[in-house]
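SUBJECT: A protein chain and its fold
Encoding: whole-number codes for local backbone shapes
Chain under study, with its fold:
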Amino acid sequence: MCSKCKCHQPWWRRLLCRRRLLIITSTILIVVLTTATATVTAWAVLRPRKPSITLQDITISAFNVSIASDNQTYLLSSTFQVTVSSRNPFGNRHSILYDGLRIHMSYHDQQITPATRLPPTYEGRGGVDVWSPFVCGVSVPIAPYNALALKQDQSDGFVIMKVKLQGHVRWRPGFFTFGGFISVDCPAYIPTGSENRGVPLGFNAVKYRLMQSCSVSL
């Protein structure tokens, strides 16, 4: 069965049919390419740059492991004051609003404190904000292997923890507002042995100045 362009038609009709097919195909390709280009351009313009977040210091008032009455459950009690700064890059076209951001401590990928909620914070282009919340946990159950590892780290004089921030963030390019989820990991290297570089602040409280850059995921 022959197509409309080949079925016993005069040469000028066959040429016209082929041109019509070419125009339709070209139009479809132009629409697809235009849509793809507009999508990529909008994504590049509206997508925000990651803020620069730094773990400035940690003050430790308590960090003790105990065993429950059943002699099987390990409990960790800890009190930290964490200072974290956030800077919205000058090159960012967007203002940032942190909304519902929470902070907690983790050790060997296990959360060792309840999450502390940070207040909503607005950050304009080039703006800097500093949070200094208390992050505490009382008799928090931890895995036995983590309890043993923590005791060993304290004995060795060096403990590695993480300060984690997670929550919602909104950014505003002009009159529009978009939202997303932000996750921040800040490694905290705490020297607790003979080379302890902490600053005593009172009874059992030691401040460690870290200035550690954090990884940010949007």
